[in-house]
UniProtKB/TrEMBL annotation:
Compartmental location: Mitochondrion inner membrane
Keyword Zinc-finger: no
Region called Disordered, residue ranges: 1-21
Coiled-coil annotated residue ranges, if any: 79-109
UniProt protein name: Coiled-coil-helix-coiled-coil-helix domain containing 3
Membrane topology label: Lipid-anchor
Amino acid sequence: MKEPSPSGGRQSRGAVNDEELKKRIAEELALERARRDSEAQKRRLKQEQMYVRDEFGKLLERERISSNEHLTRAILRERAATEEERQKAQRLARQVEEKERELRKHDAYYKEQLARLEERSAQFYKVTTEQYQKAADEVSARFKRYESHPICGELQEKILQCYRDHAQETLSCSALASQYLHCVNNAKQQRMLGRGG
């Protein structure tokens, strides 16, 4: 076996070492580059996350502000509507009170008018009753009552009874009818004699 010469061995060892060294340096440089790339990528990712977080925060803030504005507007609209309803209710209450006052005035007026009419009616009734009574008394005093008594009343009853009893045989009542006519004629003559004297 041939012993390597110290200079040749060094050279070949040096070449191997140089190659290894170059290889290691290249690897380390690649690792360093990868590490820097990774860190740069991490920084970019972090920046992007912060950007997204900021944008998302801004978006949430805009949404919150918008929602608050909508809510505020809705509350203001509701308050305005409530106030309008309250004012309308007050107006209606005042109108109802006014109508009630007016109705009470009318009621008092009509009660007063009714009382006056009742008083006048009572006075008129009293005067009318007094006048009627006075006129009735004057008529009574001026004219005597005429009392009438049926002429030949007994015969009249007998004839009527006979006609009822003999509805089919009215000729059987002719003697009573003749007596009744004779009685009526006598009464007429008596009266004429009493007047003419």
